[in-house]
């Protein structure tokens, strides 16, 4: 059950991996005069910066480490609060919790992203940042979120882990806030098995994120010798083999997104006459990744009935992207005086109980998207899936 990039693994990824293996050199750093050192991580970072139209890009070992490095770069201190949506992957919470920060949950809207109207209600004197999550490849309403951030002088960390290739009003996600974090996990738009990256236009944020990801070193040493260390960091480095595969996938990203959008448009056209649901809000229909098609039913019972007929489930019953299903996060929040249980976010609970995710490119039961199509589905297969959906709605 992979993301779309995995369906398009081919000779490009194989040749890239074999090239690195034949070099015998897999470590990020090396002697630039040594022909065995292919500089795949450096090349990946440069290509990512170009693609995102960002000043700086940093490759990391995962999306989680990208989030943690980004939050650290912002200079947030233990006890500071960061507003995050009640519907997101667990790493949006765990990455900041490990820095001693306090995730303050907020409602989502019918884009399944952070509700701009609820952000201000969550702001306290301890609030220092907002983390909009471009959930399921759909950019948040960034104009309104950035307006709130500017009004209250809050930093913005964009969680783009599910949205590589997405944009909002002509700007790539991750470049509108202060810093953005992405994932290259197996389930994402493009992937290298695991991995991630950070983008920013702020040199000082880049340097702090780099230091966190590489034992405190400042960018951009090439050898394995000791460099200048400005802070205490950890090891979230990417290796040459993973970077080589990521580079091959990056070259396919725009074609992947275009194909996903085409297939989703066809599916939506074929099911649009069915009764009892609407499509989720797309804050920028031209910028959404197209990885999923989310339908929001008129009521929870209808949603449960239709999803059950198709062998799927409603979003509120899907895995640990839903706050109420994260027992370990809830236990932590309770321990710091923030008791949260199902029902704490009624708007989110209502929307998710009425929603069903249909796979287009990301086939993932953990997202409630175990039913639908994939990036390689033919038009005939899409029509067959549409017929099944329409029949289930009758």
CATH superfamily of the largest domain: Type I PLP-dependent aspartate aminotransferase-like (Major domain)
The strand count comes to 12
Low-confidence stretches: none
> How would a crystallographer describe the biggest sheet?
7 strands, mixed
Distance between the termini: 28 Å
Q: Main sheet: which strands, in order across?
A: 1-9-8-5-4-2-3
> Strand-residue fraction?
5-15%
Rg on CA atoms, Å: 21 Å
Number of continuous helical runs: 14
User: What percentage of residues falls in helices of 4 or more residues?
Assistant: 25-40%
**Chain-averaged pLDDT:** 95
In the CATH scheme, what's the topology name of the largest domain? Aspartate Aminotransferase, domain 2
Global geometry: globular
**What is the CATH level 1 assignment of the largest domain?**
Alpha Beta
Query: Structural class, from helix and strand content?
Result: alpha/beta
CATH architecture of the largest domain: 3-Layer(aba) Sandwich
Describe the structure.
This protein is of the alpha/beta class. It folds into two domains: 4-250, Aspartate Aminotransferase, domain 2, CATH 3.40.640.10; 254-393, Aspartate Aminotransferase, domain 1, CATH 3.90.1150.10. It contains 14 helices and twelve strands. The strands form three sheets. The chain has a seven-stranded mixed beta sheet, with helices on both faces. β2 (81-85), α5 and β3 (102-106) form a beta-alpha-beta unit. α2 (11-23) runs antiparallel to α9 and α4 (63-73) packs across α8. The two termini are 28 Å apart.
């Amino acid at each position: 059950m992979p993301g779309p990039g995995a369906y398009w693994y081919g000779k490009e990824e194989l040749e890239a991996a074999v090239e690195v293996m034949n070099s015998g050199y897999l470590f990020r750093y090396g002697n630039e005069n040594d022909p065995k050192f292919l500089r795949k991580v450096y090349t990946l970072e440069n290509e990512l910066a170009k693609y995102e139209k960002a000043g700086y890009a940093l490759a990391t070992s995962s999306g989680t480490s990208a989030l943690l490095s980004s939050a650290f770069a912002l200079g947030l201190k233990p006890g500071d609060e960061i507003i995050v949506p009640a519907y997101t992957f667990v790493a949006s919470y765990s990455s900041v919790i490990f820095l001693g920060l306090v995730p303050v949950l907020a409602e989502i809207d019918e884009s399944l992203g952070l509700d701009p109207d609820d952000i201000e209600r969550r702001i306290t004197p301890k609030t220092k940042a907002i983390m909009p999550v471009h959930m399921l490849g759909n950019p948040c309403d960034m104009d309104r979120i950035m307006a709130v951030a500017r009004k209250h002088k809050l930093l913005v960390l964009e969680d783009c882990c599910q949205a590589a290739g997405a944009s909002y009003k002509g700007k790539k996600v991750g470049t509108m806030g202060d810093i953005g974090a992405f994932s290259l996990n197996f389930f994402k738009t493009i992937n290298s098995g695991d991995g991630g990256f950070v983008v920013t236009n702020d040199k000082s944020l880049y340097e702090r994120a780099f230091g966190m990801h590489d034992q405190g070193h400042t960018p951009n040493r090439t050898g394995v010798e000791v460099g200048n260390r400005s802070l205490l960091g950890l090891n979230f480095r990417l290796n040459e083999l993973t970077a080589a595969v990521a580079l091959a996938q990056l070259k396919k990203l725009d074609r992947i997104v275009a194909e996903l959008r085409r297939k989703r448009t066809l599916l939506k056209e074929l099911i649009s006459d069915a009764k009892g649901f609407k499509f989720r809000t797309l804050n920028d229909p031209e910028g959404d990744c197209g990885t999923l098609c989310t339908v929001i039913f008129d009521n929870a019972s209808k949603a449960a009935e239709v999803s059950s007929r198709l062998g799927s489930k409603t979003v509120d019953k899907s895995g640990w992207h839903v706050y109420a299903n994260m027992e370990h996060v809830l236990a932590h929040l309770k321990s710091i005086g923030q008791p949260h249980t199902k029902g704490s976010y009624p708007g989110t609970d209502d929307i998710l109980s009425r929603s069903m995710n249909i796979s287009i490119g990301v086939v993932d039961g953990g997202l409630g998207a175990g039913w639908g199509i994939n990036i390689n589905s033919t038009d005939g297969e899409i029509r067959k899936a549409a017929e099944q959906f329409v029949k289930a709605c009758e």
